[in-house]
Amino acid sequence: DVKVTQSSRYLVKRTGEKVFLECVQDMDHENMFWYRQDPGLGLRLIYFSYDVKMKEKGDIPEGYSVSREKKERFSLILESASTNQTSMYLCASTTGPGKNRGYTFGSGTRLTVV
Amino acid sequence: GIQVEQSPPDLILQEGANSTLRCNFSDSVNNLQWFHQNPWGQLINLFYIPSGTKQNGRLSATTVATERYSLLYISSSQTTDSGVYFCAVYSGNQFYFGTGTSLTVIP
């Protein structure tokens, strides 16, 4: 089974800090995604990537950036953390177009910004 | 993007009861998945079901792509079935999620 690993389950950061959330998948998937989940708002797409060094904005990219230097790793960066970025962050990966067999999610990172 | 609507938003069941969760989507899609989010927040894939019917133990799912809906059936519910169930449909290059059905199974 494909495995998607997020580096931290729980994270507490201070306002203004630069925060890195790491996601690694082990099945050579082309596509990787970052979502945030908030009560009443469901899952919202922040950024996604089709391939190494490629990135596309999702629905709510403001305040975030991403990095994909290697195929297996997709990092989400909060340039200057703010309290409204307190949320559950979920990473997912999937095979490329035409081969899609569904998403696999990581276990999530609960980020609290104080 | 595609609109995905799930119903009901909340459901409370007595242990042993059966239930049906529904997912309607607004346009043609290539694929559809059902997920269960456990109390720790992790999304677990239940079914990858672009069309037809699949069964896995007490759970089964049916997608009628031409009519733009999918159903998730839970039979003989158990307390461990509690959590939020999400439907996600794939179109273009991404999945679109519904807002989920929150299921509580009481003993």
Overall description:
The complex is a heterodimer of chains A (114) and B (107). Chain A is 0% helix and 53% strand. Chain A is mainly β. In chain A, strands 2, 4, 5, 6, 9, 10 and 11 form a 7-stranded mixed beta sheet that branches. In chain A, a hairpin with a 3-residue loop joins strand 4 (31-38) and strand 5 (42-49). The N and C termini of chain A lie far apart (37 Å). The radius of gyration of chain B is 13 Å and the shape is globular. By secondary structure, chain B is mainly beta. In chain B, strands 2, 4, 5, 9, 10 and 11 form a 6-stranded mixed beta sheet that branches. Chain B is built from no helices and 11 strands. Chain B has a single domain, classed as Immunoglobulins (Immunoglobulin-like), CATH 2.60.40. Classes of the chains: A mainly beta (114), B mainly beta (107). At the A-B interface, strand 4, strand 5, strand 9 and strand 10 of A face strand 4, strand 5, strand 9 and strand 10 of B.
Topology:
The complex is a heterodimer of chains A (114) and B (107).
Chain A: E1 4-6, E2 10-13, E3 19-25, E4 31-38, E5 42-49, E6 56-57, E7 64-70, E8 73-78, E9 87-94, E10 104-105, E11 109-113
Chain B: E1 4-7, E2 10-14, E3 19-25, E4 31-37, E5 43-48, E6 52-56, E7 59-64, E8 69-74, E9 83-91, E10 94-97, E11 101-106
Parallel strand pairs in B: 2-11
Antiparallel strand pairs in B: 1-3, 3-8, 4-5, 4-9, 6-7, 7-8, 9-10, 9-11
Summarize the structure.
Chain A is an all-beta fold and 114 residues long. Chain A is built from no helices and 11 strands.
Mean pLDDT of chain A: 90
Question: Unreliable runs of chain B, pLDDT <50, ≥5 residues?
Answer: none
The structural class of chain B is mainly beta
Strand content of chain A: over 45%
What is the count of DSSP helices of chain B, taking H or I runs of 4+ residues?
0
Shape of chain B: globular
Task: Output the CATH homologous superfamily of chain A.
Answer: Immunoglobulins
Q: What is the succession of H and E elements of chain A?
A: EEEEEEEEEEE
Low-pLDDT residue spans of chain A: none
CATH superfamily of chain B: Immunoglobulins
Rg calc of chain B = 13 Å
Ends of chain B: how far apart? 40 Å
Number of strands of chain B: 11
| Number of self-contained structural domains of chain B | 1
